[in-house]
Write a structure and sequence with these properties.
- The chain is α+β, with helices and mostly antiparallel strands.
- Helix content is about 40%, strand content about 15%.
- A hairpin with a 2-residue loop joins strand 1 and strand 2.
- This is Rv3654c family TadE-like protein.
- It comes from Streptomyces pratisoli.
């Protein structure tokens, strides 16, 4: 072993440990940001539901209820608006250096308008073209009905 290489493994190991610590710190920071976002989202959703529940009592009562729910979730109510039966709130959840704000709306089914979900059930996707799979029997199927076409190639 040469004399000028002596101790270089210690330097490389120290540099690798520092790099791993930096990567670990970045991963922790990203995790903290995601947790803060999820907390703010949950608080906003629950606060909007609470405000919509109290909307008929007046906007002030609805926003007081929303603020109480947001506070119970560890968040602050940034904005609260009630229009009829629809509540629109924004909540902020601070966690470390992150303080994301999330907006949420709530109201009776079908009342959220064009930006909300459609009224009624969602349309089904059209079926794929081609023959039906499996035995086919029409609405007149019974003991004397003829079975539908068999598998391709006629094999049984």
């Amino acid at each position: 072993m040469r004399n000028h290489d002596r101790g270089s493994a210690t330097v490389w190991a120290a540099m690798a440990a520092c790099a791993m610590c930096a990567v670990f710190a970045v991963v922790l920071a990203m995790g903290q940001a995601v947790v803060a976002r999820h907390r703010a989202g949950a608080a906003a959703d629950l606060a909007a539901l609470a405000a919509a529940d109290r909307a008929l009592e007046g906007a002030a009562q609805a926003c007081v209820a929303a603020a109480g729910v947001a506070r119970a979730q560890g968040a602050d109510l940034v904005r609260c608006a009630v229009d009829g039966e629809i509540a629109d709130v924004t909540a902020r959840a601070a966690l470390g250096p992150y303080a994301p704000e999330v907006r949420s709306r709530a109201g009776p089914p079908g009342s959220l308008g064009p930006s909300g979900p459609p009224d009624g059930p969602l349309p089904l996707k059209p079926s794929l073209p081609g023959p039906p799979i499996g035995p086919t029997a029409g609405p007149t199927a019974g003991p004397g009905a003829q079975p539908g076409p068999g598998p391709p190639g006629g094999g049984r």
